Amino acid sequence: MIRVGDVVECGSNRGRVGAVMPYGGALSIVTAAHLLEGLEGSEGNGAGPAMVGGVACDAVRVISGYNLAILQSRNSDEIERSDIKNPTVGNANLFTADHSSPCRIQSISSPVYYVYFGCSDLPMPGDIGAPILQDGAVVGMLSSIFPNNCTGLIVSSDVLSVGSTRR
């Protein structure tokens, strides 16, 4: 079963499933677009396959400007849809299949916002694209981490509504 927080492998690049949402008539996986560079001959759309939980997935869309890619599984029966909601300022958790890291969303004034982590519990390489959860719902995805000041950038789930309505 593919769900948020699972590992996405694109050649030698690793990231995480940030959300699972409807797109193009099927449940689709959202992850970091730069992971696609690990696929031979990848230029975004049409690249593949990426592997998620041993299941081959094809890149069908890159959401420009936000480092997000939409992948579709070749076996869509094995996907668990995400609950997605708008973020609020306050406590949250970065979630992966391996661990959960508490964090705090400081502002939500744009589609990309800062989140603060405990310096002893920073996300690891390979956690890019991981979902940020509030009350069990995806409110954003990790885009980058700044270990020198224990902060990161999150792409808001607001961007997903744009990605799911445009083709």
Order of helices and strands: EEEEEEEEEEEEEH
Largest sheet: 7 strands, antiparallel
Give the strand order of the largest sheet, numbering strands 1, 2, ... along the chain: 2-1-5-6-7-4-3
- Gyration radius, rounded: 14 Å
Provide the β-strand percentage band: over 45%
Q: Alpha-carbon distance between the termini?
A: 26 Å
Tell me what the structure shows:
The protein contains one helix and 13 strands, in the order βββββββββββββα. The protein has 167 residues and is mainly beta. Strands 2-1-5-6-7-4-3 form a seven-stranded antiparallel β-sheet. A hairpin with a 2-residue loop joins strand 3 (19-23) and strand 4. The relative contact order is 0.21.
